[in-house]
């Protein structure tokens, strides 16, 4: 289970430090047992982010049934996807 406070703290860390392997490792150390991964926001479809930050959208992950799936339910969330938002517009 995740809390809205955890999600806010995670997002703030990514906003301050950016997204790289070191930040993911730090998050895994701070929140043992939670799943963390990163991708581009364009890779995610049909789900609204649980939280929108500066340059990153955060989605909740449910991995209870041996398959990862996105969820909007904090009770079933066991991790997050940190999806980087591109400011570039395709011409």
Give the key terms.
globular, 2 helices, 91 residues
Can you describe what's shown?
Strands 1, 2, 3, 4 and 5 form a 5-stranded mixed beta sheet that branches. Helices cover 26% and strands 26% of the residues. The chain has 2 helices and 5 strands. With 91 residues, the protein is α+β, with helices and mostly antiparallel strands.
What's the helix and strand layout?
Elements: H1 4-17, H2 21-30, E1 35-40, E2 51-52, E3 56-62, E4 69-71, E5 79-84
Parallel strand pairs: 1-5
Antiparallel strand pairs: 2-3, 3-4, 3-5
Instruction: Tell me the total number of β-strands.
Output: 5
Tally of structural domains: 1
Distance between the termini: 41 Å
Biggest pleated-sheet summary = 5 strands, mixed
Work out the radius of gyration.
13 Å
Helix content: 25-40%
Overall average residue pLDDT: 90
Cα shape = globular
* Helix/strand order: HHEEEEE
Low-confidence parts: none
Counting helices, strands and paired strands, the structural category is alpha+beta
The number of helical elements comes to 2
Strand content: 25-35%
């Amino acid at each position: 289970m995740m809390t809205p406070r955890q999600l806010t703290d995670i997002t703030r860390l990514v906003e301050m430090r950016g997204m790289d392997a070191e930040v993911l490792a730090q998050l895994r150390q701070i929140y043992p047992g939670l799943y963390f991964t990163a991708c581009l926001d364009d890779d995610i479809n049909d789900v609204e982010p649980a939280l929108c930050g500066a340059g990153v959208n955060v989605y909740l992950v449910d991995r209870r049934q041996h398959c990862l799936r996105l969820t909007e339910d904090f009770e079933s969330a066991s991790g997050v996807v940190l999806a980087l938002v591109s400011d570039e517009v395709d011409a």
